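input
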Amino acid sequence: MAHIELARVTKVFDDDVVAVDDVSLTIDDGEFMVLVGPSGCGKSTLLRLIAGLDEATAGSVLVDGRDVTELAPRKRDVAMVFQNYALYPHMSVRQNLGYGLRVRRAAKPEIARRVEDVARLLGLEQLLERRPSQLSGGQRQRVAMGRAIVREPKAFLMDEPLSNLDAKLRVGMRASLTQLHTRLGVTTVYVTHDQVEAMTLGQRVAVMREGRILQVDTPQKLYGAPRNLFVAAFIGSPAMNLVEAEVDGDEIMFGEFRAPLDPRRRPPAAARRIILGLRPESFEDVELAGAGSARIDVVVEVVEELGSDAHVFFHVDAAPVGGEAREAREDDVGLLPEERVLFTARVDARTGARPGARATLALDPSRFHFFDPETGLTLLDREEAQPAADVPPAIGASVLTRSGDAS
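output
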């Protein structure tokens, strides 16, 4: 196992493209750290800098306190797992697994023992004499991981290793990776653009944008207490609903609606114009919600029935939030430009909401998020930013009114 430290690491390519910009990060011994962000944010480059496959323009990479910035990859005692598996097609599974040990001139009995151990660990015993062309995508990925494991390195570096697998296989492989890390306890740095993958795998997750790390935290803290608009919009599926809003005393106005604020969770007194963030889970069909929630009357646009729950889409009469928030949600942007905010509510599958009809949704003010429209930073203190899921709202049941109808 290894303790990895990045100290103000920068990577600038020959065409003056800054891929990694003054990044400092500490990865604890035995930790599973995930680097996540949109395409081109610098996460794969940062992984290659740790591996030594790219040379840092500035800064230092330390492993167990030793500066390895200038060392060749083979001297860093780390093992890389690539997106494209990188298996030798002319070699059997057994030969692929043992290749790295043979290059290091390990004794044949030692190679045989380690290969057999890893094959048992990954369920590859019956596949040892097959070649990669005779394997499924999931089997090839297990062989690629096995080739890294068999070396018994200080750290595993994984660059989107599951991206070539179908959805069902990815779910199974995520579970397998978690079990492997529990068994082996080896420091792991994992790169992905899939925030669901990041949240389910990482003990901590670093969210990257434009070569910088915006927030490093546990998955639950990233989800419940995002520090800025980009993290708020990027983490969560479906994404957080964001809308420009105005604070008016003990209420908040957004679009055509006026809602009560939870006195235990509200923006600073000086903040009047803000950006309001609402997770889809903050809503529920009013017929299925508990007491003590506010209510919102909406016109349903689309209902996606997912079996265990349903996604209800409706418009709010306000302009969409742009900038970082829109960039973070680039995969959710439709083909046609939106002039109003399209909200998503995740509700119980028993909902009576139907496309084209009016519906009443319950809304939990204790789960509101508030952001500064100028800086994009959260307006909540660290302690306030994490909603207390087991604490009911501090207000009684009320009905959200359209702001034009309020007295």
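quick obs: The chain has ten helices and 22 strands.
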